[in-house]
Amino acid sequence: MEPVRVNWQLKALLPVVFVLVAGLLLFTVATVSLQDPDRHLLLWLAGAGAVVICGVSIGVLAYLVQRPMVELQEKVAQISEGNLDSEVSFSRRNDEIGDLGRNFNHMAQQLRESRREIETMHRTQMSRAEHLATLGELAAGLAHEIRNPLAGIAGVIEIVGRDLPPTSPAREMVKDLKQEINRINRILSDLLEAARPHPPSKRRGNLNTTVDHAVMLARQQVLSKPIEIRLEKDEILPEVEHDSDQIHQVVLNLLLNAVQAIDEQGSVTVRLGRKDEFASVRVIDTGKGIPDERLPHIFRPFYTTRGNGTGLGLSLVQRIVEDHHGRIAVTSTVGEGSSFEVLLPFSAAQAQRDAVVPAAAGI
Prior knowledge:
By secondary structure, this protein is an alpha+beta fold. The chain has helices spanning 8-35, 40-80, 96-163, 170-195, 207-221, 244-260, 313-323, 348-356, and strands spanning 203-205, 227-232, 240-242, 266-275, 278-285, 327-333, 337-345. The chain has 3 domains: 8-112; 135-195; 203-356, Histidine kinase-like ATPase, C-terminal domain (Heat Shock Protein 90).
């Protein structure tokens, strides 16, 4: 059988009721004593009884309310010092104080579980960071070892190509070989950039100009394709503190990915603007889109959805944006296209404020 639940307010009210009853009794005795002086002793006894009742009531109130509050304060202090094993003993009470104790113990249990999860994630991330660091050193060493013989091969092919007769069909093969060598060089450059990143050299400048240069280069890549690249500048956009070379690389990478996502005819729009306290650069294409199951992985190193891709482009893009204390996000619909948005703080001081108070981390 479940015990009867008595609210602590009622428990606190009972002493007051006792005092009122004692006062009524005292008043009655006093009235009688005025008529009969021989009963003064009874009056004193009644007064003493009222005092005793008040004292007992205060003691009961302290036991029922004050002691749990003191214990709760002690346990809160222990938790603030890092001892998450603290629990209150009054959680077995069947009143609001007991509810408070049970909620406190449940909160402490959740904190213990959260700390265990955080420690597990930290160990996993540290292991992954060490693994990536080892891969980076390996990639850097391989890149240097491959580039030296590759340069010799490229020199030999150049000489052979000059010695071939103008009508020789081998000239077309030499041309293809040069393109493949250039592709290998680009892959090695990406590997070196991923393995040995350098911090951005940020200066205040016009983001419209930086993006315009990247758009001009991307347009050269689509001269023979039915793809239009449009640029929508924001002429009133304040200057942004950024590394123009690195942000140029970010936008160009996004543009080339957008172009490669378009199989036939289509368009790519680059739109600059302001979003809250950030400068915004959006690259919107009308390509084939990215399936939902692939979206969470596209920024991982060496993950690619193209057969001829290295999987390093978007990883480098994300690292550069994060080095600028910015954010990058993507939305995509299969069959309709994708939209990448890069948000950059206008200044280093703003980036520091956002780092201290990371209120809205998502886009």
